[in-house]
């Protein structure tokens, strides 16, 4: 799978609020599917499982079977990769542009007194 295809899966997974809520819950600690269902009573078990499937396909959740329980673990590495590719460079660029704007807006008096 290409990097762009993998990024598409990650962005799709992050695009739904329920999946972001599930990731927030898993950020705290690994949880069983049953525990996640209890924490999201507005959803039925099948819906929670479908959302977990999308997250697993994107590589954001790793499911581990322990007997009859399915433990779900957050894998933050794909989010880190998105940050390194998209967020970090754009944040650095935005910071540089704001700094340049600030320098351009300073009056000659302020520049001379500095």
Describe the structure.
With 114 residues, the protein is of the alpha+beta class. It has two domains: 3-75, Orthogonal Bundle (Arc Repressor Mutant, subunit A), CATH 1.10.10.10; 78-106. 69% of the residues lie in helices and 12% in strands. It is built from six helices and three strands; from the N terminus they run ααβααββαα. It has helices at 3-14, 17-28, 33-39, 45-57, 77-105, 108-113; strands at residues 31-32, 61-66, 69-74. Strands 1-3-2 form a three-stranded antiparallel sheet. A hairpin with a 2-residue loop joins strand 2 and strand 3. Helix 1 runs antiparallel to helix 4. The radius of gyration is 21 Å and the shape is elongated. The protein starts with a helix and ends with a helix. The mean pLDDT is 90.
Question: Oligomer, anyone?
Answer: single chain
Biggest beta-sheet profile: 3 strands, antiparallel
CATH topology of the largest domain: Arc Repressor Mutant, subunit A
SSE order: HHEHHEEHH
Strand content: 5-15%
Q: So, CATH architecture of the largest domain?
A: Orthogonal Bundle
- Number of contiguous helices: 6
Order of strands across the main sheet: 1-3-2
